[in-house]
Amino acid sequence: LAEIAGLIIPNQRIERIVKFAEILDGKLSGLQQDMVRQKLTNEFFTDLMEEGIRQAARSLSDERREYLASVIANGLSSEAIDFIELRHLMRILGEINDIEVVWLAFYSGETMRNAAEYREKYPGILTPIEAYIGADQEILDDATLQDSYKEHLVQLGLLKYRYRRDLRTGTPEVDRSSGGLMIEGYKITNLGRLLLRQIGIMEREE
């Protein structure tokens, strides 16, 4: 424990921050340096950068560091959204893991149009797991975890339920066993699309 706390973790964090800095440098290379330095005097930007560094130190993948660098680069290059709003989006990003980012992207319009191709890219994540009577405990556990990822995205307002509707009346169907509306699937929210744009997964909409 002493070796992990005193040597391994600090070194890993430094390596992650260095990788984050390299990615960010690439994203900022096209911006004017005077403009970037001017932003450094903005305490809201430095707060955003501090949060980015904190999350980068805990990041386990280059994809995650790409997401963080994209948020900061967007804050420097765009006037459409301010640093406080970006800080809020970065906080939300910090609450979801890389698997949940994949699920969120899957439910965006762009990836749904290429759903088969996207599933092939992440087969271990996006292959549906159905819990059925008599299933092994491992299958039940995997299905529970897969459902929990999507439910967490709903709780954060990034996804919302898609309810089954009666084909004749167009009204949502009621689940007789629970009394609630029957959930048919999920769909992305405007907040979910905004997050995907800021982390560089979705293109900006005209």
How would you sum up this structure, described in words?
With 206 residues, the chain is mainly alpha-helical. Helices cover 64% and strands 5% of the residues. It contains eleven helices and two strands. The chain has helices spanning 2-28, 33-39, 43-58, 62-77, 83-95, 98-106, 109-113, 115-121, 123-126, 137-155, 190-198, and strands at residues 159-163, 183-188. A two-stranded antiparallel sheet has the order 1-2. The longest helix has 27 residues, at 2-28. The termini are far apart.
Tell me about the largest β-sheet. 2 strands, antiparallel
Q: Helix count?
A: 11
Strand order of the largest sheet: 1-2
Give the SSE order as H and E letters.
HHHHHHHHHHEEH
Distance between the termini: 52 Å
Radius of gyration (Å) = 20 Å
Fraction in helix: 55-70%
Shape: globular
Low-pLDDT residue intervals, each spanning 5 or more residues: none
The beta-strand count equals: 2
Helix/strand/pairing category: mainly alpha
Indicate the mean pLDDT: 86
How are the SSEs ordered, and which strands pair?
Elements: H1 2-28, H2 33-39, H3 43-58, H4 62-77, H5 83-95, H6 98-106, H7 109-113, H8 115-121, H9 123-126, H10 137-155, E1 159-163, E2 183-188, H11 190-198
Antiparallel strand pairs: 1-2
Helix pairs in contact: 1-3, 1-4, 3-4, 3-5, 4-5, 6-10
